[in-house]
Specification:
Elements (H helix, E strand, L loop, with lengths): L7 E10 L2 E11 L5 E4 L6 H8 L10 E4 L7 H7 E5 H9 L5 H7 L15 H13 L15 H14 L4 E5 L7 H16 L3 E5 L12 E6 L2 E7 H4 L2 H8 L3 E6 L2 E6 L2
Parallel strand pairs: 3-7, 3-8, 5-6, 6-7
Antiparallel strand pairs: 1-2, 1-4, 8-9, 10-11
Helix pairs in contact: 4-6, 5-6
Bound molecules: adenosine-5'-triphosphate.
Amino acid sequence: MTIDPPLLDLADVRVIADETCILDLPALTIGAGENAAILGANGSGKSTLVKLIARQFYPHYGAQVRIFGQESWNVFDLRKLLGIVSGAMQLDFDADPPLETLDCVVSGFFASRGLWAHQHYTQAMIDAARAALEEVGASHLIGRSMASLSTGEARRVLIARALAHRPRALLLDEPCAGLDPASRHHFLAMLRDVARGGTTLLLITHHIEEILPEIDRIVMLRGGRLHRDGAKAELLTGEALTGLFGLPMTVRARGEWFDAAIEA
Ligand SMILES: Nc1ncnc2c1ncn2[C@@H]1O[C@H](COP(=O)(O)OP(=O)(O)OP(=O)(O)O)[C@@H](O)[C@H]1O
């Protein structure tokens, strides 16, 4: 039996920006197929961790960052194995030269922002991009430019871009931001299918109610450091969230889902 290498295997990681250490992780491993949520307050280092995985940030000398068991990657090859959805990415697409939505989704096959003359896309890629747009309810946006879309519309197109090339793992940094309740409901249902299909999910969120039943590990970051790491049953509790966010919180189970509130 072969065992897939972990999505993430970190040791002695320190990320320095503006002469300040913004992420300090002596050790963290997330296995292949292990769906995890990263929780933490604003500025706790969650997006920095995603950027470290996607090779947008590099750690300080001496760190080990193995993604899918490999330390050295061609960035484009790595990003083809990952589907990434984040608010920062959405801003990048807004700022770029005009890009049509279907082209945006097809560009996910090349891990590029936009399509360029040297990239040879196939009819199969276009069909997969159309199917992904259909899946997220965004087919009607084909023909529009990314910059002309509302926040929620653009978010759906980016989700389609992340899914179209059937990545090994999805990195989702606040993926539901800007989605209305119905879109969020459909998106979370779709993510459950993706997780059941074997794609590893790494979900970054402040919203406990978005933590899918398929996620069973919680990694808590505080001040750029690992605060707690464990099973959902152990960490989706009032005691653990109170410790993380510094305010008295209660957690309620709703079937397989949870929600949290600040105690009155
Ligand atoms: N390029 C950068 N230069 C300097 N500081 C940075 C840079 N990127 C991030 N930081 C700082 O690192 C810290 C962690 O940022 P990060 O974006 O990872 O937080 P986060 O947990 O994702 O927060 P949020 O929930 O607000 O999105 C913050 O204090 C942020 O100001």
